[in-house]
Amino acid sequence: MVLSTTMYSQEPTSNLKNDIGINVNAILNKVIFKKVNDEITNPFPDQLSVLTYRHFVSPKVAVRLGLGFDQFSRNDTVASPFSNQLIEEDKFRFYAVHFGIQKNVIDAKKVKLSLGWDWFFRGELQDITRNDFFFTGGIDLEETIFTSIYKENIVGFGIPMGVQYFINDYILISTEFSLEIFNKFSKQKAEFNGNREDEYRKNPNEVNVKLRPPLALFIHYRF
Questions:
Q1: Among 9, 79, 204, 221, which is most exposed with the fewest C-beta within 10 angstroms?
Q2: Which of 96, 98, 78 is nearest to 86 (CA)?
Q3: How confident is the model at residue 88 (pLDDT cuts 50, 70, 90)?
């Protein structure tokens, strides 16, 4: 869920120094369309934030804060005509926060372009369970149980470039893309039929560079 950008009106008498925005793209997908991926992954990997807030310290400069959170469960049962049944239970949680500063670089009356700098943190938790029931020799019912827990944390900074369109003095829409550099830390453990890994197995740290596309659409209210 990506942070959008906004700059307030350049009217000399304006005292609207704050705005709050909501990612309508993520809300529509989550609440209206109830979009859930087949795989247990973040359903909105390129939409960092759900909610944003800005405070303008000058007509062209604002400090910004973005918050993102999502969780869902996916349950599925796959049955075979040959007496085999697989029960899948997946849980997913994603959260994010980032904080930064932005500056207006093109400031027309209706359309504004901005450039900024963000520090961000993102976390992800996956909890996967697989119960496989099957008959052996056509008589005895046996069960295999597999569970896996995966945790991921990402720390980095980004250079956001945003565009905003002002509908009126109080309402605007915006989107943004960002060039990000971040370090990913992840670990996991698993259990198979009671044979459990008590300690998490750490994966190699990864340094990544990514261009986050402008997939989020925000509606902002200024006050």
A1: 204
A2: 78
A3: confident
CB 120 within 8 A of CB 158: yes
Residue 131 one-letter amino acid: N
Residue 46 neighbours by CB distance under 10 Å: 16
- Residues 6+ positions from 12 with CB-CB distance below 8 Å: none
From the list 183, 212, 185, 187, the residue with the least C-alpha distance to 199 is 187
Q: For strand 218-222 and strand 18-23, is the pairing parallel, antiparallel, or unpaired? A: antiparallel
- Write the CB contacts of 168 (distance below 8 Å, at least 6 apart in sequence): none
Q: Could you tell me which residues come within 8 angstroms of residue 74 by beta carbon, excluding any fewer than 6 positions away?
A: 36, 40, 88, 89, 90, 92
pLDDT tens-digit series, residues 134-189: 655 555 566 778 888 999 999 999 999 999 999 999 999 999 999 999 999 999 99
Cβ contacts of 186 within 8 Å, gap of 6 or more = 150, 151, 152, 153, 202, 203, 206
CB 6 within 8 A of CB 19: yes
- For residue 36, the tally of other CB atoms under 10 A from its CB is 15
**CA nearest neighbour of 216 among 40, 42, 51:** 51
